[in-house]
Amino acid sequence: MVKYIWVLFYLINRILSEEVYQNSSHICSTCICEDVDSFILDCNNKHLENVLANWPTHNKSLIATFSYNNITTLKKFPITQHAAKLVFDHCNIQYLESGMFSNIKRIEYLDLSHNLLTTEEISRDNFKGPYDNKRYRPIAIKHLNLAYNNIHSIPQKFFDIMPDLEELNLEGNDFVVLDPSTQVALGSLGKIKVLNLANNELTELEANFIRNLNTLTELDLSSNHLDFVPITLNYISKNLKILKLSNNYIFQLTDQSFIGLDLMELYLNDLSRLKVVEANTFATQKNLKKLYISGNPSLRVIDKEAFANNQTLDELDLSNNALTDINYMLNWSKLKILKINSNLLECTCELYTITKALPKSITRTSESPMCTYEYEQINQRVYSLDAEICSKKHSSRITKITKKFNIIRIVMIILCSVLITITGAAAAVAILRYRKRLAFRNYPFAAQVSYLPIQTQHI
User: Fold this and answer.
1) What is the pLDDT of residue 3?
2) What is the pTM of this model?
3) How many domains does the chain have?
4) In-domain check, residue 27
């Protein structure tokens, strides 16, 4: 009798489970399964509405992707003893079940980006690990992606349950301001290496949390509302190597902007208010190898002393700015990648000198940038410039053009002056005549009558 009751209970449980879990008995006929270095389960865009009831049989680490499905509630994951990487982006997820990782001892990677999660779902209870010895264990996650949800705050002790977290992506949420709770939570990330806070409308970077991130090597602050390079970056200057500040309201780059930092990569693209890069801006960045300053429509000048003497870069992107000239400001011969197209460059001797210093791997490219001769309005490919531009012959030709232009300008000024004088005189005469005529009309006495004597003839 007990046996039958147990079987009945099992069947009822299976029926109820199938309502909230996806039947996985033939999942490899629906999804793509590959057994290589890891067991890969690809269930992207399969119209799934629930988490699987069981994982396919595997004896290796598991990589399971469920992108572009319609899983409103993320239920407790099935059991696995192996390391797991799970991807659930673009799934319309709104809710997370408590203890959803309690069956997975070694989850290392979780992508929940581009969903509908709110602050209320980001809780310790939902992310707690397996229950062991009367308590819930921390989860072994190293990479957590919560980008593009509806999160505006994080509980203070949220990250205590993931002490090994190295990468955190919070891009595109609703923070605007990092409130005290969020600051405490982020400040507790003892092993964090990569932090993405892009596209959150932040206007500042609070010192209360940033000063504790001593292990941080990469920080993305792109697409926020920063006016200046945050001075609080000095707190993490020891290990920070990659800094992304693109698409902000930064309008000034000076010798104080990056002082104290020791960067290897710096991204300053799409800064619509930036007009000038001042002297010594990058001079302190001795180990800088990749510099991207592109898509800045108001940037017309990069000071010739913006870099230190003989400073070397591997990659330099100055494309799509409003630069009219590029000075001999660094060691051009060491560059591996250079982009200067879509500027307002003038063909000058200095530009020619730079092209001769560049490695042939750069100057041989088919997409050579263009420059314009200032007085001749002739376009030419930068990498096709020749030594004539630096010769006396070329200089004298420019001088002749300049002299002719000056003569024409003087003649035009004289003609305009004469025309103005004549016009003024004509206007004065017209005014005088008008006033005289007006005075004549308003004279109060009748006009004088002249009489001619009439001679009478005496008879």
Assistant:
1) 44
2) 0.81
3) 1
4) yes
